[in-house]
């Protein structure tokens, strides 16, 4: 797949993948893939037909028995080769991702590098898949347990991380544990995952182990009820995630649904102020605020609030807004015109609710890229608890400031939110830091860290309405999600033992 250049070149008609074959869809409906920096179309993704989606599931089901029986080291060797190819094509993938998603180059590279990080962690799957043993659990009886793959998984990916989520969170652990996958790529950004799948095939991926489709919600919903699908991974909105969780679970499937967030920071008066502000600037405006670990709300202790807001405005104004693929851009566009309009409406709603617009990013323009979907950094001060901008996910470069009297008030306001993906505190007090880590509802906690995303050997552990399921993605949770435990108890008896009466519990009960 050639890299689609950002300002010229034909609109490419994309294909879907079944059995390692890129196929032309028979659909009459194609979905536009845009360059957010220019607002111009660069490709079109097929809205695959139901037959085509079913074919992808059937291919994954056919591939499962042989892939399940492939030795774990052989599956891991595939990941080693895949990692080498990803490293070799890092610059190409970075540019492609920036072009279709809008992340600036440093962020786009980070997106790919986070996917590579998970691939590297998946190379240790043989350790994480190890079971347990216990000899002589009853006289002469031994028990061992194994972790086995389940079958076909559906992976439904969002637009905001075209590399890290589908090709990091979803694919590596799924296939190294022995499962097969149908990836429903985000139709707005399918090229990055498609190119990475090309590299995975080049690394030696057998036919049918991973298949890729783009489709509408109707066809995606069929994955939730298809008997061949054993589990569903999803990242996206809370409303859709809850629908997927309820529907798939009701049909006997495992579900891992990572959904919305409204992460809060608590800034205490003893913080290292400038470093705190710089950290929050990065956390709030990085990736144009389009990440579930963004930091869109800051609870600032009243005693330093004026000073904090003044410095925050100064540093936010220094950010260079620009096209994703131009060196030096620090704040790229949001994903679409519709998302831009949604963010701008939310800003107005915040003002209407009584917030003070310290910095208003609406109407941002970049010379030469006037059609781009740009929103400048926005700061809303005096945001009231319970207001829309302070409680609901906006998914854009908007910061809501809530002024609080002290630690206790700030923590209470944070924990009142229905989401609990992440939370962080900025302080030099070990006591407050420990108390915060213990009492915050956030599942991923930062102590002077604005984006507390853990390394991939740990789970991405959102709480409350930021997650629906029992086992989180990545780490030991991720391996457990993609496998099920089988316990085997055995006894070998002598000729004398064979003549003894068999008890109700067949010898496994140690007391009588």
From TrEMBL:
The keyword Iron-sulfur is annotated on this UniProt entry: no
InterPro entries in the cross-refs: Ald_DH/histidinol_DH, Ald_DH_C, Ald_DH_N, Aldehyde_DH_dom, MeMal-semiAld_DH
Record's keyword annotation contains Oxidoreductase: yes
GO terms classed as biological process: L-valine catabolic process; thymine catabolic process
Aldehyde dehydrogenase domain boundaries: 22-488
One Pfam assignment: Aldedh
Keywords, alphabetical: Oxidoreductase
GO MF annotations in UniProt: methylmalonate-semialdehyde dehydrogenase (acylating, NAD) activity
Gene3D superfamilies: Aldehyde Dehydrogenase, Chain A, domain 1, Aldehyde Dehydrogenase, Chain A, domain 2
NCBIfam families xrefs: MMSDH
PANTHER family with a match to the protein in the record: MALONATE-SEMIALDEHYDE DEHYDROGENASE
Protein name, UniProt field: Methylmalonate-semialdehyde dehydrogenase (CoA acylating)
């Amino acid at each position: 797949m050639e890299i689609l250049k950002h300002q010229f070149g034909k609109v490419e008609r994309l294909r879907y993948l079944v059995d390692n074959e890129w196929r032309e869809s028979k659909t009459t409906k194609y979905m536009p893939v845009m360059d957010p920096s220019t607002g111009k179309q660069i490709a079109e993704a097929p809205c695959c037909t139901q037959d085509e989606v079913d074919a992808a599931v059937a291919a994954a089901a056919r591939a499962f028995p042989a892939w399940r029986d492939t030795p774990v080291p052989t599956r891991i060797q595939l990941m080693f080769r895949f990692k080498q190819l990803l490293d070799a094509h890092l610059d190409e993938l970075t540019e492609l991702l920036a072009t279709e998603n809008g992340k600036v180059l440093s962020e786009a590279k980070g997106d790919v590098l986070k996917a590579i990080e998970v691939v590297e962690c998946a190379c240790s799957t043989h350790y994480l898949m190890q079971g347990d043993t216990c000899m002589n659990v009853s006289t002469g009886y031994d028990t061992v347990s194994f972790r086995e793959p389940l079958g076909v998984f559906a992976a439904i990916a969002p637009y905001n991380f075209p590399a890290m989520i589908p090709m990091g969170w979803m694919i590596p652990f799924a296939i190294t544990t022995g499962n097969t996958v149908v990836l429903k790529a985000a139709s707005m950004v399918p090229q990055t995952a498609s190119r990475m799948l090309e590299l995975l095939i080049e690394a030696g991926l057998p036919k049918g182990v991973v298949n890729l489709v783009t489709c509408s919600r109707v066809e995606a919903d069929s994955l939730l009820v298809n008997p061949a699908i054993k589990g569903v991974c999803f990242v996206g909105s809370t409303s859709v995630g809850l629908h997927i969780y309820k529907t798939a679970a009701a049909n006997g499937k495992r579900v891992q649904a990572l959904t919305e967030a409204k992460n809060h920071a608590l800034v205490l008066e003893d913080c290292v102020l400038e470093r705190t502000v710089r950290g929050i600037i990065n956390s709030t405006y990085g990736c144009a605020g389009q990440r579930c670990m963004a930091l869109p709300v800051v609870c600032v202790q009243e005693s330093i609030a004026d000073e904090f807001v003044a410095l925050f405005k100064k540093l936010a104004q220094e950010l260079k807004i620009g096209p994703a693929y131009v060196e030096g851009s620090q704040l790229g566009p949001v994903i679409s015109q519709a998302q831009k309009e949604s963010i701008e409406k939310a800003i107005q709603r915040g003002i209407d609710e009584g917030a003070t617009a310290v910095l208003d990013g609406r109407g941002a323009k970049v010379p030469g890229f006037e059609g781009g979907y740009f929103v400048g950094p926005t700061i809303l001060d005096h945001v009231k608890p319970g207001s829309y901008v302070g409680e609901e996910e906006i998914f854009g470069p908007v910061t809501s400031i809530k002024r609080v009297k002290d630690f206790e008030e700030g923590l209470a306001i944070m924990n009142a939110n229905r989401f609990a993906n992440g939370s962080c505190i900025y302080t030099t007090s070990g006591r407050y830091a420990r108390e915060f880590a213990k009492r915050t509802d956030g599942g991923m906690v930062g102590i002077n860290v604005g984006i507390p995303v853990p390394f991939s050997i740990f789970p991405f552990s959102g709480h409350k309405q930021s997650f629906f399921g029992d086992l989180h993605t990545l780490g030991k949770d991720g391996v457990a999600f993609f496998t099920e435990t089988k316990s085997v108890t055995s006894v070998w008896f002598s000729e004398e033992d064979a003549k003894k009466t068999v008890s109700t519990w067949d010898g496994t009960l140690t007391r009588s």
